[in-house]
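Q: How would the structure tokens look for this protein?
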Amino acid sequence: MMIRTGEPRRLGVPSSEARLHFGREQQEPSRRPADRLLMIDDEPAFELSFHCGTCPLLFRRLDTAKEKLSLESVQERLRGPLADPDDGGVIDAFGVLLPEGEYLPLLLTLEPRLTIPGKAGDYFSDEQVTTWGIDQFWGLPQYPATPYYRTFETAVDADAHLYEFVVPMVPPTWNERGRVEEYIALMEQGTVPTAVAISTLDVCQPAIDLGDDYFAHWGLTHFLLDGHHKLEAAATAGRPVRLLSLLALGESLAEAEDQARLPSLRAQPRSARATAT
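A: Here is the predicted structure in token form.
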């Protein structure tokens, strides 16, 4: 459910000073195009979808992804639900971790489902394969190298579908069991805590039709800054959690008009992709 959206705003510090920023892998000219990367403390943390827009949607955790970016100063405020993106100065607090740019604040309520790559419900083994098929070199689906949460999907139109993901910076197995149990207990009492993420919207579609269902995949991917224990608790208990998403407009693979449609699309009812039979 969409709670509220704010106006796009400029946030962040110079990229050289930000704990989190986007970069590109340096490669030889004869090799494939440079990757998009999500960097934490100047270490590559995630490989992202290619700039071309015709390659499959991707978020792949790298072996240098070892850090969370929680802020002690706002922990008490995030223990409950935010009512507005600007509530409690949370945006400004996290803004100092981010690279300078335009961000669209979105406040959402999620019902997360933990997804294991290659298991039931995995987007990369299911919906993505129906459009791109398996990787022609590896003979396998894309592999994100991390458990992740599926939270929402809806139709953009007959030729496009929106998929939403929440990606932890570190695997749920790294979470402290006591804190997860603490949040489960709070949620069972009716509390809806708030997590925070930096997000991208990537619109990807193959250049040619090679799969069983040819359409554009809109991937709304939230990379958790705060809330690793909350997301696991919500998925375990089947309870909702609130998410403050800061959508990085300049780092997304989406046109401005597509980005402008996102709040209304995210307010639609959940619906699965209707495929031809």
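The chain has six helices and 13 strands.

Residues 177-188 form the longest helix (12 residues).

Upvote if useful.
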